[in-house]
Write a structure and sequence with these properties.
Helix content is 60%, strand content 0%. By secondary structure, the chain is mainly alpha-helical.
């Protein structure tokens, strides 16, 4: 290691290709103290350390130390002058020689060249000096690398006898300033000018570096980014640049300029940008502490990161809150409100349920709830609310095929608004897909039902089905609908081949139970219909009706139509037991059927009516009444919903219920009359019902409407003995004695004609004889009473003479009917089996022996039914004529 004052010239200088080693003997001769050591052995790339040049004698070291101490002082002064802008011209040789006499004397006579330069290895400073005689080697020191450097070392003594300074050279100096060196703009080298340039020709600023300056330069350079450091080294070591630029660069490095300034200056020198990595800037500890203590630094590096973190967290929290509120809380909350409203519908709170729906809809739109609300309102028969929900659904989802088809189905099967259903299907389904399979099927089905009230719509149904067959081929569901179309238009010739098509292979060819039931009912109607005109030529080919209906029942036991038509089949063939069982199953199936249509409603009403009649025939009157009342409720509901119009077919429900009141319950004629009037309102008022209405009026003492009903019956069919008796009695009650006389005379003629058929009446042995004898007794008495009334009204005594004869015959008939057949004794007054008092005897006695305030007595009983025979006579085992005697009529 060198001594304290030793100048270390073997530091790691860049390898410029020259011999920069100083002989160890001369270096050792200088005894320089360690405190004044010039630390030029920093980490400078390209220089090689030499232990030989670092060893010298103690004496030489002292001399060199003194010389370098003086040089450092000069350089410090020069540096200060440069920094303050007061630098003078470069130091002359005399000045330099005064300070360093030993270093100036470098054998100029031999033309040798002393290289007394101290290059900075990090910046690659090119310092060259010409070795001409009389020029100080440091006179040409130029930090900018200009043309004022020393000449090449030609003729220089580099042998073993030369000193270290004599052997010091700057590598590459010949290339830089030789004949091949490039020219710098605005300057001419000495070679180019034809000779060396004297200091007077160009003023070049000398830079003198102290040990501290050099350390700062090295530290500054080492603190730069790698790309910037390499660029600066290239500028100093390889580039020929203007001295002022080189001086600026050195001063920048010495004053520890920022990397940004160095990059800007390097870019100016190189003519290309030298980028600095973003945020790369090293500062001293004091600067860093000062900067960190400043408000901008604290704001940027401490407050802003916290603020940025807070904002990021706040934004994430806000985003999570928004997403959670929008996509979790809002849907869940809206769904809860939807559910609350949906549960209110079965309770009848329809307005509140609709309000809940609207409130939930404002929060979050959910498509499924449209379907649920609409179906719930439909099942509750709140069709206005249901239509509102479907309209809202199609407004927000115009291409929703399911919603459109459900809406059309409700209009078709529940409201019978076929025109609106057709419009919905065309605008909301077929408008977007003209050949949509479900849309065309719904269109055809709607027009098929529409054809029941407007037969022209059948063609629209056929067109839709034909388009389906053309578009999708021969498929069983489409062929099945074509079969239903041919049934509706009554085309038996097309129905039978399709029946054979489906029935030939039931496992392979699928057909619905509904169509099978309709097919069986159609074939049953065609088989037993009343033929008018020319019969259909294909009726003889009808067969396997029972097989079709049984297959329909087996395919879907819950289908009510299959059981209904099968019950009709049993009715046609007289199997009443099977018919009743099948009707009971059909009634239960109709009760649980999920969907209603006009045709299904008709079948259901017929089922209820037929089942009620069968229960009546079985004398199960209470069960029959229950079934009939149920049928009436269904019918009235269908009328309210406009599923049906009033029809005589369903008016029978009222008449059957009226018959129960009329025949099986005594004294409830007003209720029976009410049911009969309802039956007449629905178009069902056959002659027997008219007669029963007249009889109900008669029993309530309403003679005028009773006479109207009886007369209406007589105008539609030939009067029988029951009707004539009723007409005679009601005419007498109204005071129309001449009409009463006419009716009684005609009735008596009918009875006499019937009596003539029997050689002898045997009332005790034959019931028909007993009935004939009683009727003859009653009509003779009543005719005699009428003749007596005519006698008083006209004064004609002939009427009374005939009346006495009739009284006698009636009294004799009563005596015959009241004798005991075994003892031949007359029945006593307490015998309840007698037909009543002998009114003819009382009337005749009053004629012979008049009594004050006595009025002739009339048998006022009339038959409950005008039909002969009447089915009710067997069902109600009692005297079928009226037995309650109304207060005797007293003429005014």
């Amino acid at each position: 290691m060198p001594g304290e004052g030793e100048l270390n010239l073997d530091a790691e200088f860049p390898d410029f290709g020259g011999d920069a080693a100083v002989s160890g003997e001369e270096v050792a001769a200088a005894d320089v103290p360690d405190t004044d050591e010039l630390a030029l052995d920093a980490d400078f790339p390209g220089f090689e350390s030499s232990t030989e040049s670092q060893s010298a004698s103690g004496e030489a070291g002292d001399e060199v130390g003194d010389d370098f101490g003086a040089m450092n002082g000069l350089l410090d002064g020069l540096t200060d002058d440069i920094e303050t802008g007061q630098a003078e011209e470069p130091t002359t040789e005399a000045d330099f020689g005064d300070a360093f006499p030993d270093m100036v004397d470098m054998n100029p006579e031999e033309g040798g060249e002393a290289e007394g330069e101290f290059p900075d290895p990090d910046i690659g400073l090119d310092l060259s000096q010409e070795g001409d005689a009389g020029i100080d080697p440091f006179d040409g020191f130029s930090p900018d690398g200009g043309e004022a450097g020393l000449s090449s070392d030609e003729g220089k003594d580099t042998g073993p006898g030369s000193s270290d300074m004599d052997n010091f050279t700057l590598p590459g100096i010949d290339d830089l300033f030789g004949g091949n060196a490039p020219k710098i703009a605005g300057m001419e080298t000495g070679a180019a000018a034809g000779g060396p340039i004297s200091p007077a020709e160009e003023v070049v600023e000398e830079i003198r570096l102290s040990e501290g300056d050099f350390d700062r330069l090295r530290n500054t350079l080492s603190g730069y980014p790698l790309n910037l450091r390499i660029a600066i080294e290239e500028i100093i070591a390889e580039q020929a640049i203007a001295p002022n630029l080189m001086s600026s660069l050195i001063k920048l490095l010495v004053r520890s300029g920022s990397a940004k300034e160095a990059s800007s200056l390097a870019a100016k020198i190189l003519g290309k940008p030298v980028p600095i990595p973003k945020g790369f800037e090293k500062k001293t500890g004091e600067e860093l502490e000062a900067e960190q203590a400043s408000f901008p630094y604290i704001f940027v590096h401490k407050f802003l990161p916290v603020l940025r973190l807070f904002l990021v967290i706040a934004m994430l929290a806000a985003s999570l809150f928004y997403l959670g509120y929008e996509f979790i809380y809002t849907p869940v909350h809206a769904n809860s409100i939807y559910k609350q409203g949906y549960e209110l519908i079965p309770t009848g709170s329809y307005a509140q349920a609709n309000e809940r729906f609207n409130r939930a809809f404002q929060l979050h739109r959910q498509q499924d709830w449209f379907y649920k609300y609409a179906e719930a309102f439909r099942d509750e028969r709140q069709y206005i609310y249901a239509e509102e929900k479907y309209d809202q659904l199609l407004t927000h989802y115009p291409k929703d095929k399911k919603g459109a088809l459900d809406y059309a189905d409700m209009e078709t099967n529940y409201l019978r608004n076929y025109a609106k259903a057709d419009r919905i299907i065309r605008l909301n389904v077929l408008e977007y897909s003209i050949d949509d399979r479900e849309g065309l099927l719904a269109l055809g089905d709607n027009n098929l039902l529409w054809g029941e009230i407007d037969p022209s719509r059948y063609e629209e149904a056929r067109s839709a089905y034909a388009r389906l067959l053309e578009r999708y081929g021969w498929q069983d569901p489409i062929v099945e609908r074509m079969l239903r179309y041919f049934i509706r238009v009554d085309n038996l010739g097309e129905v039978l081949p399709l029946q054979q098509y489906f029935m030939s292979d039931p496992k392979k060819r699928k057909i619905s139970a509904f169509t099978l039931a309709e097919l069986g009912g159609y074939l049953l109607d065609k088989r037993f219909e009343e033929v008018r005109g020319v019969p259909d030529e294909h009726i003889g080919q009808i067969g396997n009706i029972r097989d079709v209906l049984i297959q329909a029942v087996q395919s879907d036991p819950r289908l009510p139509e299959a059981h209904y038509h099968l019950a009709r089949y049993y009715d046609h063939f007289g199997n009443s037991l099977e018919e009743r069982q099948t009707l009971e199953i059909a009634a239960r199936a109709f009760d649980i059927a999920p969907q209603e249509s006009t045709q299904r409603t008709r079948y259901r009403l017929n089922t209820q009516r037929r089942l009620g009649e069968m229960l009546i025939n079985s004398r199960e009157f209470f069960s029959a009444e229950e079934q009939l009342i149920k049928g009436i409720d269904i019918y009235e509901d269908a009328l309210d919903r406009r599923f049906l119009t009033r029809s005589p077919e369903f008016g029978q429900l009222y008449s059957d219920l009226g018959d129960l009141e009329y025949f099986t319950k005594s004294g409830n004629m007003p209720q029976a009359l009410e049911y009969y009037l309802l039956a007449e309102l629905n178009g069902w008022a056959p002659p027997e019902i008219q007669y029963r209405m007249g009889s109900a009026y008669y029993q309530q003492g309403q003679w005028a409407p009773a006479l109207d009903r009886f007369f209406a019956v007589s105008s539609t069919q030939a009067p029988n003995r029951r009707l004539l008796n009723a007409l005679g009695n009601v005419s007498y009650m109204r005071g129309d004695y001449f009409h009463a006389q006419g009716y009684y005379n005609r009735l008596l003629d009918l009875l006499d004609t019937e009596r003539a058929r029997f050689p002898m009446l045997m009332p005790n042995d034959r019931p028909e004889h007993l009935e004939l004898a009683e009727r003859m007794m009653v009509v003779r008495n009543n005719l005699a009473v009428t003749l007596e009334a005519l006698t008083k009204a006209t004064g004609n005594r002939n009427y009374r003479s005939r009346a006495l004869g009739l009284y006698t015959e009636s009294a004799r008939a009563w005596d015959s009917l009241t004798r005991n057949p075994d003892t031949m004794l007359r029945a006593g007054a307490g015998d309840l089996s007698t037909p009543g008092m002998n009114l003819a005897f009382l009337n005749s006695r009053n004629t012979l022996y008049p009594e004050p305030d006595y009025e002739p007595q009339l048998y006022i009983q009339i038959d409950k039914d005008m039909l002969e025979p009447s089915a009710w006579e067997d069902l109600v085992p009692q005297d079928f004529r009226l037995t309650d005697v109304i207060e005797p009529y007293r003429p005014r």
